[in-house]
Structure formats: C-alpha cells, structure tokens
Amino acid sequence: MKLLVISGGRHPYEESTPILETFLKSAGHDVTATEDGAVLANASSMATYDALVFNTRRENAADFKELRLSESEQEGIINYVKSGKGFVCLHISGCGADYWPEFAQITGGGWVTGTSFHPPYGTFDVKVKQAGHVGVSGVSDFTTSDELYMGIEYSSDNDVFLEGTSEEGTWPWGPDRKDTHMPAGTFPLGWTRSYGQGKVFTLLLGHDGKSFESPEFQKMVLNGVQWATA
After folding, report:
1. Rounded distance between C-alpha atoms, residue 55 and residue 143, angstroms
2. Which of 3, 158, 180, 208 has the largest CB neighbor count within 10 A?
3. Contact 9, 67 (CB under 8 A)
4. What is the pLDDT of residues 13-28, one digit of tens each?
5. CA atoms of 159 and 59, how far apart (whole Å)
6. What is the structure's pLDDT at 62?
C-alpha cells in the first residue's frame, strides 16, 4: 500500500518516525513521511495514497502553532477519509480537537490538552479486550514501556480492542509539576471506527522510540494499515 506519514511536533518523533518508516517498509508498503501538512490540502496528491498515518502532534499550542492544521488541510482530511480512504492515528496524534472539533468525530477521541493526563512513562500491562478483533490479530496480552493515557475524549461508538489498567497514585503533573491524584481504572488504548466511507484505526500507544520497538505495537500498526486499506 502507498502510505503518507505525517510527523512532527512536541514529542520525540525524531526517534519514533524512522522506526515507523522502517517497519512499514519492511512489510512491503510504499511510505512517504513528511512534517509538511500542506499535502493534506492537495486532493489530487492525497488521492494517490491508500492510507494516511498520523504520528504527530498538531494542537493549538503557542510554541507549535506553525504545525496547527489550516482550514484547507482540515477539509482535506475530512474529504479524504469520508471518500473511503484509511486513517491510522497514533498516540497523541488525535490531539487537535481544541481548535477543530470535527477531528474528534474522525478519530473517535484522543488526548485533550489541559484535561487528559497519565502516570509517569514506565512499564505497564496491556490487555487484549477483543481477541477476535482485527486490530490485535496475532497479539496477546503484553507488557510495554509507554504512557497510559487517562481522561481522554472518547466516543461511545468506538469498537475497543485494547486497554490498560493503572493503579491509583499521586504523581507530578502539568507545567508546574504539581502533585496530582490519578485514579485506578481500566482505560481504552485502541479502537476502530468508521467516518463516512473511511476506516479509522486509533492506537494510543507509541510515545517514543522504545515504545515503537515493541513487537506487539508494530504488529498492531500493521494490522491497522491492512484493515484500513481493505
């Protein structure tokens, strides 16, 4: 498949995107990676890609405002996915609904700056919620080093295939690193949904290079690409 990977923003994408490119190409995909979102507004260029993969953070933050998606780029994504193309959204890539509410309708939710949170980056157990789901084909429960997102925006019609459980605790959080209580619970980490005629695969794992090296993570991303382009 011909894939367009959009990268860049406030995350260690210099680590993760090269790993993403490598395992996608090793699986036989034709991959183009860029931080320039202008291509999203070019309908003729976008039509040549079978799926769009977001490994990027395009929120409305002052220090990364140049990465904010323009209205024409937003419209390009809407038209692309609605027309029947695939969209794979990784980790914090769903962030952006603070200035573009329709994005959450496409992704089914994701990180919301100022609302969402997570315990410190570390090792935790990931559970397969639906063993027969295409997203976890060939994947069993596993342990990973990553971030376990909580307090995300989440649509009730998402078809969840993956989740993680966290213990209750208090950890430094926010710009001022204030001690913040975080609840115990089980939280969705991966789901599929439709948007128009398109298929959307959202996976909240994938913070950094180490996270991307997880065999289970790579398998799920490949599953997502295969499903979204079928």
Report:
1. 22
2. 3
3. yes
4. 999 999 999 999 999 9
5. 25
6. 60
Query: Could you tell me the pTM of the whole model?
Result: 0.96
Decide if 78 contacts 106 (C-beta within 8 A). Answer: yes
Amino acid letter for position 193 = R
Please answer whether residues 90 and 55 qualify as being in contact, where contact means their C-beta atoms are separated by less than 8 angstroms: yes
- Contact criterion met (CB below 8 Å) for 213 and 19: yes
Q: What are phi and psi of 108, to 5 degrees?
A: 85, 10
Reported for 99-106, long-range contacts at CB under 8 A and 24+ positions apart, including other chains, are 99/59, 99/60, 99/68, 100/69, 100/74, 102/74, 102/78, 103/74, 103/77, 104/153, 104/155, 105/155, 105/195, 106/77, 106/78, 106/81, 106/195, 106/200
Sequence-ordered strand ranges (E) for 9-137: 30-34, 51-56, 86-90, 109-110, 122-128
pLDDT digits (tens, 9 = 90+) for 79-121: 999 999 999 999 999 987 778 899 999 999 999 888 899 999 9
